[in-house]
Amino acid sequence: MDPASELIPLKVHGVLVDPNTDTQIVILRDEQHMDVLPIWVGTAEGTSIRLALEGIVPPRPMSHDLLTSFTEHLGMKVTRVVVTDVKNNTYYATIHLFAHGVERTVDSRPSDAIALALRTKSPIYVTQDVLKRRNADNLDAWLAKLDPQEFGKSETT
Amino acid sequence: MITQMHVRGLLFDPYNNAYIVILRDENNTDMLPIWVGKAEASAISFALEHITPPRPMTHDLMKAILDNVDAKVLSAVVTDLRENTYYAKIHLWYGDSEYSIDARPSDAIALALRTDAPIFTTEEVLQKQNSEELERWLENLKPEDFGKFET
Question: Beta strands of chain A (E only): which ranges?
Answer without folding.
Answer: 7-17, 23-30, 36-42, 76-87, 90-99, 102-108, 124-127
